[in-house]
Write a structure and sequence with these properties.
0% of the residues lie in helices and 51% in strands. With 120 residues, it is mainly beta. The strands form two sheets. Strands 2, 4, 5, 6, 9, 10 and 11 form a seven-stranded mixed β-sheet that branches. A four-stranded antiparallel β-sheet has the order 1-3-8-7, with no helix packed on it. The radius of gyration is 13 Å and the shape is globular.
Length: 120
């Protein structure tokens, strides 16, 4: 199971760090991805991290502003978001899967989502 947290209201230009805690059967969790879904839009891939090696991949839209990391001892992944813009307002999701992927279909275990609202 995945539990996302850390969402909230932040001003444009600010920063926020989201967490995703994994519990249960994590031994087959090869990668953890981060996605978001804005009102009226589809789910957007943001980035992913390999659990063992910590290798990260990012979508061009957030590269340089968002950073994904993980703490294996805590079974937790983090999404550090800097220089936030109003268009970053969305529900943010973490998801675990057996391989690195850039689409939601590659992930089979999803957290419940946490809302991030960026005020301009």
């Amino acid at each position: 199971q995945l539990q996302a947290s850390g969402g909230g209201l932040v001003q444009a230009g600010g920063s926020l760090r989201l967490s995703c805690a994994a519990s249960g059967r994590t031994f087959n969790m090869y990668a953890m991805g981060w996605f978001r879904q804005a009102p009226g839009k589809g789910r957007e891939f943001l980035g992913t991290i390999t659990w063992a090696g910590g290798v990260t991949y990012y979508a061009d839209s957030v590269k340089g502003r968002f950073t994904i990391s993980r703490d294996k001892a805590k079974n937790t992944s983090y999404l550090q978001m800097n220089f936030l813009k109003s268009e970053d307002t969305a529900v943010y999701y973490c998801a675990a899967g057996p391989r690195v992927g850039y689409t939601s279909s590659k992930y089979n275990n999803w957290g419940q989502g946490t809302l991030v609202t960026v005020s301009s």
